[in-house]
Design goal:
With 432 residues, this protein is an alpha+beta fold. Helices cover 13% and strands 27% of the residues. The relative contact order is 0.15. The protein is elongated and about 85 Å long. The structure holds FE2/S2 (inorganic) cluster (FES) and fe (ii) ion.
């Protein structure tokens, strides 16, 4: 098996697709399911979700097993979804429970078993499990940020891309790119923010300590920068939780060295549509602190970052006929352009990985092992949860005292409790 060729596959009966089917995935938002069926393509399968009259949610194959019309146009009933053509009705486990044009005792009704998958509704999101053990699925791992109550959570969706989800995830396993790609059009730090910033942070990648670690939830990239004070370091870490959660944080993202206690933990998860399409669900937890500025919005409902016609901040040149002209200056736009231009399924065997690609290499090793384990009848790398069923993903971005930094899978400091070095109202550094 050519691993790099197999890895982007998501469909049923593929090694990578079988691996993905051992995880729960976001399907849609709770609010998407009202009183009509909701068509959704997941992992290369066309499905229809519906909320029954009793409130329970079903997820079944989109094509009616009778004569192939789409159940997207079916009728939602109290106990299931009824095809509008001849009335075959399916419950949430794919049993046919009515065939109004057949004799009341037809054996055909018990013979038909339609495609179905279990779903769970939690934190405003509907999740699905498409593994072969779907009749007895593992518990839904609850991603920590959606359970947090110590800030305002913004959850957005609808950003659909036409290339492999791996282009996105590998970009996130590659923290080094942010030191080049996202500094193409560097904004100068506004005067009002400078008092909150340590302008002595050495942001040169070659002077920093870059590490990647396998963690219980997936992997973590950490970059430690020097400051003018030998006892103070600036830590930038990103975390990736399997299968498709990405997280950066914890103090205001986007600005280099800052130490306010305004926290803005960003991240998201992907809905994998098929080999060459995915949708981004972004989540951002915003906790206003002592940072008295309107420079950053306290709460934003436009977290997609791509609402302004997919444009950067630089001026468009009249001779720029590229698909994305004037694209530099907005990190989500920069990421979109770079990921899309790699190709829908890039020829990865032509790559030349280098030292800064340690995260990409580790991510592929994790997936390769899980694919092999699943193919051999085992399990994909599990994502452990705490006693409340929560997946704890810690990230940190900010200044830290050298004694508080422990480089490793459990690296400290952590944004777990929203702590970090900040300036208090007197302008002194405190850990809070
Ligand atoms: S096609 Fe669905 S009931 Fe006939
Ligand atoms: Fe990026």
């Amino acid at each position: 098996m050519n691993f790099l060729r197999e890895l982007p596959r998501t469909g049923p009966d593929t090694a990578a697709g079988n691996m993905l089917r051992q995880y729960w995935h976001p399907l849609c938002l709770s609010e998407d399911l009202r009183d009509i069926p909701y068509a959704v393509r997941m992992l290369g399968e066309d499905l229809v979700a519906f909320r029954c009259g009793d409130g329970g949610i079903g997820l079944v194959g989109a094509i009616c097993p009778h004569r192939c019309t789409s159940l997207e146009y079916g009728q939602v009933r109290d106990r299931g979804l009824q095809c509008s053509y001849h009335g075959w009705m399916f419950d949430r486990r794919g049993h046919c429970i009515d065939m109004p044009l057949e004799p009341i005792d037809t054996p055909l009704r018990d013979e038909i078993r339609h495609i179905w998958y279990p779903v769970e509704e939690w934190a405003g999101v509907v999740w699905c499990y498409m593994g072969s053990d779907k009749a007895d699925p593992p518990a839904l791992p609850k991603i920590d940020i959606l359970a947090r109550t110590d800030g305002g959570l913004v959850l957005s969706r609808g950003d659909v891309r036409a290339y492999s989800y791996l282009n996105f995830m590998e970009n996130f396993a590659d923290i080094g790119h942010s030191y080049v790609l996202h500094l193409l059009a560097p904004g100068t730090v506004p005067e009002e923010i400078k008092p909150y910033c340590d302008m002595t942070v050495d942001t040169d990648w070659r002077h920093a300590d870059f590490r990647v670690f396998e963690t219980d939830f997936g992997l973590k990239s950490v970059v430690v920068h020097n400051t003018a004070d030998p006892d103070l370091k600036y830590v930038n870490s990103w975390s990736l939780a399997l299968p498709t959660h990405f997280r950066f944080g914890g103090i205001i993202a986007g600005l280099p060295p800052d130490f306010t206690n305004d926290r803005r933990e960003g991240g998201g998860m992907l809905r994998i549509i098929d080999d060459t399409h995915f949708e981004i669900f972004r989540y951002t937890l915003i906790r206003p602190g002592n940072f008295r500025s309107n420079f950053f919005p306290r709460v934003s409902n436009t977290a997609r970052g791509l609402d302004d016609g997919i444009r950067g901040t630089v001026e468009k040149k009249e001779y720029d006929n590229r698909k994305y002209p004037a694209w530099e200056g907005v990190p989500p736009v920069e990421d979109l352009v770079i990921q899309e231009m790699q190709g829908a399924i890039p020829p990865r065997e032509n790559e030349h990985l280098a030292s800064s690609d340690a995260g990409v290499a580790l991510y592929r090793r994790l997936l390769r092992k899980s694919m092999a384990d699943v193919a051999a009848g085992g399990r994909a790398k599990p994502v452990p949860t705490n006693k409340d069923g929560i997946v704890e993903v810690d990230t940190f971005k900010g200044l830290a005292h050298i004694d508080d930094i422990v480089l490793g899978p459990e690296n400290m400091p952590s944004s777990e409790e929203g702590r970090g070095l900040i300036r208090d109202d007197q302008g002194d550094l405190v850990f809070a």
